[in-house]
Amino acid sequence: MEDKMNFTEPIFERAEEYGKTSYKLFKLKAVDKTAEVVSTFISRAAVLLVLSMFILILTVGVALWLGDLLGKLYYGFFCVAGFYALIGGVLYFFMHNFIKRIISNSIITNLLN
């Protein structure tokens, strides 16, 4: 009887060590994926911020230029606002699902690879 206890005890110890190691590995993989997704998000957000600032300054310049051509400065801003409303409508009604699918696929790819 004592022989059986000596035989099964190392097996249980190894199984316990395997379980602990598997849990630590799972935690490390989760931390790695989280760090990868967050770093990707932050780097893309930084690029988006710089691009947004560029577009904002360009928009103000174009609005002032158009306003000068049309005779009143606010006419230029109305034209630029109308252009953005048109682009927003096209993106929302025709490209909404396409853009949503691209973003979803990007997130899934980052999480699974």
Q: Could you say which structural class the secondary elements and strand pairing correspond to?
A: mainly alpha
Radius of gyration: 29 Å
Low-confidence stretches: none
| SS element count, helices | 2
| H/E element order | HH
Task: Offer a concise description of the structure.
With 113 residues, the chain is mostly helical. Helices cover 96% and strands 0% of the residues.
Can you walk through the features of this model?
By secondary structure, the chain is mainly α. It has helices at residues 2-70, 73-112. 96% of the residues lie in helices and 0% in strands. Helix 1 (2-70) packs antiparallel against helix 2 (73-112). The radius of gyration is 29 Å and the shape is rod-shaped. The model has no long low-confidence stretch (mean pLDDT 87).
Quick tags:
single chain, 113 residues, rod-shaped, mainly alpha, 96% helix
Write the layout of secondary structure elements.
Elements: H1 2-70, H2 73-112
